Amino acid sequence: MPESHLTVAGLSESELLARIFPRLNNLHPNGGAAASALLLGPGDDAAIVAAPDGRTVVSIDTQVQDQDFRLVWRNGYRTTGFDVGWKAAAQNLSDINAMGARSTAMVVSLTLPPETPVSWVEDFADGLSHAIHDLGADGCSVAGGDLGRGRELAVTVAILGTLAGQQPVLRSGARPGHTVALAGAVGHAAAGLALLESGPAVDLLTPALRTVMDRQCRPLPPLAAGPAALASGASAMMDISDGLVRDGHRLAAASGVVLNLDPAALKLLTEPLAAAADAVDADPMAWVLGGGEDHGLLATFPADVQLPPGFAAIGSVEALAPTESTGVKIAGRPADTVGWDHFAD
User: Fold this and answer.
1) Distance between CA 308 and CA 183 in Å, rounded?
2) Are 307 and 181 in contact (CB under 8 A)?
């Protein structure tokens, strides 16, 4: 059988793993930073990861075919294994980043239909490895995982991180008078999703629109910003995975405050999305406020703290009025954008 026609049904688990392992951490040929935390990698029943801080930061995320991605989108784009591997790494690296921590290791569970091409799985492993390297998480390695058979593709990544002796930045530290700041993008992944689902055929997209579309398939979390925010004295922080307003509500509730966003700052965030909005006849502000999966960081800082590189002020933290509930406002008026919900959408 030609190599290009080989599916996972044609290989044993050991043979498939033998194709995957060389691609994981292949950007660290001499060990380096990634080797410092990984004491024992793939090959045994479990991996061993160093935790010199005495604490381990842990998170987990899952992607499921036709819930989190399509193999073929309505505009004709075919999701590659590289896309799914990249996104699986990016969304988990972002969760560790949101605590002000640095990622040290991840384990990956991959469920595959028997007709999945082996080349897709190899591409998936390359996507994981390249995301770790290209996003700047060189201290992280793929420590192992699991392969299984199922009716649809599903990927689960559990990730570990270290605080290196520092205290984590939680969602609960925002206080009245603090500055609300954003690192990374919002709305780009939502714009990309709109292009995939209802935009022009992928072959007709301009380079600029293709870049926006790619942000849905391969998000770019600002991994340097989390530790920088911790070092600068951020009072609260979280990953924006479900939309600026929805996640802002979560931070506000955890801190017992109101976040009041600046409409002028929000307007600036819509400008890179104007062409995509024209292409699908959409309101870019709806993407900025309600679009998820960019994996930027929403943070608050005391007013006397200079914002670290990568962060821009987008509002302020306010105390609750006597009859007021926690939440998000825009120029003093309640923001009611729904955002993404895994079970409702």
Assistant:
1) 9
2) yes
Tens digit of each residue's pLDDT (9 = 90 or more) over 248-261: 999 999 999 999 99
pLDDT per residue as tens digits for the range 146-201: 999 999 999 999 999 999 999 999 999 999 999 999 999 999 999 999 999 988 99
The H or E element that residue 105 is part of is: strand 102-112
From start to end of the chain, where are the E strands? 38-40, 48-49, 57-64, 102-112, 141-149, 154-162, 179-183, 236-240, 258-261, 296-301, 311-318, 327-330, 333-334
Q: By the 8 A CB rule, do 311 and 183 touch?
A: yes
Handedness of CA 17, 120, 87, 64 (dihedral sign): negative
pTM over 0.85: yes
Contact 232, 225 (CB under 8 A): no
User: In a 3-state reduction of DSSP, which class is residue 137?
Assistant: coil
